[in-house]
Amino acid sequence: MISIVIPSLNKLAYTRRCLDSLLLTAGVAFEFVIVDNGSADGTAEYLLDFRRRTAAAGIPTTVLFNDRNVGACTARNQAIGLCRGAEIAFLDNDIVLRDRRWLQVLRDTLCSDDRIALVTPKLLFPFPPYNIEHVGIAISPNGRVGYPGRNAPHDDPAYTTRRELQGAASACILVKRGVLDEVGGFDDVYNPVQFEDLDLEYRMKARGYTLVYEPAVEMYHFENVTTDNTPGLNFKYQTVKNLLEFTRRYQSVFAHEGGPADDQLVWEDLPRRRIEEIGELEVRE
Question: For the whole model, what pTM was predicted?
Answer without folding.
Answer: 0.95
